[in-house]
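re the bet — no i am not wrong, look at it urself. input seq straight from the record:
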Amino acid sequence: MTKDLRQKSAQAAAYLFCAIMVWNYGSGLAGTEFSGGRITGPLLDLYDIGSLLFIMAVLLTFFLRRIAAGASIVASLLCLPLYLYFVAPGAFRRVVGGTYSVPLRSDFVWDKWASLEILVLAIAATVGVRGFLVSKETKAQNSG
């Protein structure tokens, strides 16, 4: 197996792992009261778009590696606000504003799954940036 194919496979595996994790976390929120909120509804919509972009990134990694890397970075940024809503509700409410039906109990809440997802999104964004850099190096080596 060539070095380029190994790198593409590792990149695709990272995106697939992210897609599975994102789908697993968000599947329990779809169709609930959470999806109909004025603030939480758009958060869930962004999250859904991000999960679709992760799936697209997995499929595009072997053909259009830089586009897949960009899609994974955008997907990470689209999914992040939902996790921040669960981990840092106080900070989220101060930044976004709005009216909430549930009173704020604390500024930060330990949600191990949401915290793990934030770490996974950071890894996906890092892999995406690395995909850009490696792709540029490969093009430079092939042309020179």
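see?? Residues 112-143 form the longest helix (32 residues). told u. also Residues 3-131 form one domain. so pay up
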